[in-house]
Amino acid sequence: MSIKYAILGILSYNSFTGYELKKIIRDSSFMYWSGNNNQIYKSLIELLDGRLVTSEVRYQESSPSKKIYTITEKGLDELKKWILSSPEPPEFKKTFLIQLAWADQLSTDELNTLLSQYEDEIKMQIILQQEMRRRQAFFPNRTPREGFIWDMIYQNIISSYENELEWIKRLRTELFCNHNEEEINTMNYAVVKRKDKKYIECASAKTPIHNEQNALDLIAACIEHDTNLLMIHMEALDDDFFRLRTGLAGDILQKFINYHIKVTIVITDSQKVKGKLREFLSESNRGDNFRAFNNKNEAENWLLDL
């Protein structure tokens, strides 16, 4: 994709500075191009020379002046002409497939590690794309049709990653006869519905939650079921969670906060909470993102704002 058409498209929505254009394109899931950030400014110069955009310097009393770019009628005509050109077929340039093509020389453990790493990367991308869609930092919605088109663009990207995830799961399952899907996914959770709200409840895990990836799996479950509410029972947590020196509790809870997941932990065994962990939980219980309770009813009431 030529970067100038992305610029023209963005400017057809609103006038922006070069910095704002760079940020919109950088944060986009689909307005990618090969090159560095200077290409945006080079393209803006070309668009100015071609009278496809205009620029205006706006002076500010308390801040540096800034140059605002606006699309012209000629620029709109050029953009429409490009939109009406024959669409290109989707590109399938996946470096991982080249790695996989020669992966038979790896041992079983090495191959399983490679596939696990790729699966984790795909899960992370799904979470990121879901979050970008939710935030809608740049989301033209001037008409219902335009809003629908942009929403479907995000769905296209997310579904591509979801299809990739299903493919990699099938690959791993069929490659390793001594593994099955149940062993690969050890998180046991349920979707609990209360009136007009719902949350994810993780009561146990075949392999207790012991790293940030496990936290991401639960975040993915929340996104999949369209909720940001999560309840975890102490039985699903690794013992290291209750040893503050390991840093596991802080790392996992920070992950939930980063993805705006409201989480509560039900700790029915008071012997698990002592020393610095007690202080840590007491401090955390003052916030709105995470709290620990000693029974499920209190945890659920807080989680659902009852």
Could you give a short description of this structure?
This protein is α/β, with parallel strands linked by helices and 306 residues long. It is built from 12 helices and 8 strands.
Description of the molecule:
This protein is of the alpha/beta class and 306 residues long. 51% of the residues lie in helices and 15% in strands. The strands form two sheets. Strands 4-5-6-7-8 form a five-stranded mixed β-sheet, sandwiched between helices. A hairpin with a 2-residue loop joins strand 4 and strand 5 (197-205). Helix 1 packs across helix 4 (73-83), helix 6 (108-135) packs antiparallel against helix 7 (144-175) and helix 9 (212-224) runs parallel beside helix 10. The termini are far apart. 21% of the residues are buried. Residues 178-185 have low confidence and may be disordered. InterPro entries: DUF4180, Tscrpt_reg_PadR_C, Tscrpt_reg_PadR_N, WH-like_DNA-bd_sf, WH_DNA-bd_sf. It comes from Acidilutibacter cellobiosedens. Residues 93-175 form the Transcription regulator PadR C-terminal domain.
